[in-house]
Write a structure and sequence with these properties.
Helix content: 40-55%
Number of domains: 1
Strand content: 15-25%
Strand order of the largest sheet: 3-2-1-4-5-6-11
Distance between the termini: 47 Å
Bound molecules: nicotinamide-adenine-dinucleotide
Structural class: alpha/beta
CATH class: Alpha Beta
Radius of gyration: 19 Å
């Protein structure tokens, strides 16, 4: 039985992944610092769903705490590490850059060092579609140039990819980076647009619609992302290109079907049966006009293509939201 460390286990994707791995019968150690970037009670509620399940244990730890992370890797012999803990959010990286350095850079080195010294068999880590910056070639391919990030968040994720490649090369540590594309779903993140829209519309408040609703996002349902991660865990990368002999691989995990923000809002309105009052606003600094994942490598290597439509995914989210927060849609 594989022993897996999932960092960010009280977070949105980490929680769903943890549930899925526990169902598979894995021995799972969850780690999270339960920080207050968004509602801590939601993180605790997710954790409460995991606690008590057979095979699960939890450490409240900060990735940036070098001693504590070193100790954890010494005590437990992990077969696989899935690093999802990070300071997420593009816009917040303009307000609080240090949070990104602490969690995404310092924290990530601590994970790499832990993996290296305890001979972890595979490190899978979260990257992001934001590394593509304002790439105009669509769909975004893992072979495209990603040297022009436009937020510190994106730069920190690109840095993770470079750092992981280095450890794969120097120490033979197999690493796989996953560029997630706008993940949404039940138990989701309150800082994300679909969540904020739902909350505001139900409260009868106006919603802020940036870039006048014209940006396009490859909205990807969380169950598809989890399916992708679970399959990738078992796909240990091999040295495979002339440029690099490192056991290192990058995949996009996206729906391969971008949707305009205004169309997403329409689906939320339809599911709630309420029309939104919209504040149409210009683009925000750090934001990109479009994301669109090329998932050919994922399909070829692990035989999986995300495919949940926003009609299905948003309806699931609204059902969860109204029941969790005890509010009632029309
Ligand atoms: N949700 C998306 O659309 C999306 C898109 C691209 C990439 N990602 C990446 O996927 C990963 C998971 O994202 P998510 O949406 O679940 O975000 P999330 O914020 O819900 O989850 C991250 C979790 O990590 C924890 N954490 C943060 N810093 C930590 C630290 N220093 N030490 C320990 N725990 C820490 C947080 O408390 C949180 O529970 C992140 O790396 C994120 O950057 C997410």
């Amino acid at each position: 039985m594989q022993k897996i460390l999932v960092t960010g286990a009280a977070g949105f994707i980490g929680f769903h992944l943890s549930q899925s791995l526990l169902e598979r019968g894995n021995c799972l150690i969850g780690l999270d610092n339960l920080n207050d970037y968004y509602d801590v009670s939601l993180k605790k509620a997710r954790l409460a769903q995991l606690e008590g399940k057979s095979g699960f244990s939890f450490h409240k730890l900060d990735l940036a705490n070098r001693q504590a992370i070193t100790q954890l890797f010494k005590e437990e012999q992990f077969d696989v590490v899935v690093n999802l803990a990070a300071q997420a959010g593009v816009r917040y990286s303009l307000q609080n850059p240090h949070a990104y350095v602490d969690s995404n850079l310092v924290g990530f080195v601590n994970i790499l060092e832990g993996c290296r010294h305890s001979q972890v068999k595979h490190l899978v880590f979260a990257s992001s579609s934001s590394v593509y910056g304002k790439n105009t070639k669509i769909p975004f391919s893992v072979d495209d140039n990603v040297d022009h990030p436009i937020s510190l968040y994106a730069a920190s994720k690109k840095a993770n990819e470079l750092m992981a490649h280095t450890y794969s090369h120097l120490y033979g540590l197999p690493t796989t980076g996953l560029r997630f594309f706008t993940v949404y779903g039940i138990w989701g993140r309150p800082d994300m647009a679909y969540f904020k829209f739902t909350k505001a519309i139900l409260a009868g408040e106006p919603i802020d619609v940036f870039n006048y609703g014209k940006m396009r996002r490859d909205f990807t349902y969380v169950d598809d992302v989890v399916e992708g991660i679970v399959r990738v865990i078992d796909k240990i990368p091999q040295p495979n290109t002339d440029m690099s002999t490192a056991p290192y691989k990058i995949y996009n995990i996206g729906n391969n079907q971008p949707v305009e923000l205004i169309d997403l809002i329409q689906v939320v309105e339809d599911c709630l049966g309420i029309k939104a009052e919209k504040n149409l606003l210009p683009m925000q600094p750090g934001d990109v006009p479009m994301t669109y994942a090329d998932v050919d490598d994922l399909v070829n290597d692990v035989g999986f293509r995300p495919s949940t439509s926003i009609d299905v995914g948003i309806q699931k989210f609204i059902n969860w939201y109204t029941s969790y927060y005890q509010v009632f849609a029309a």
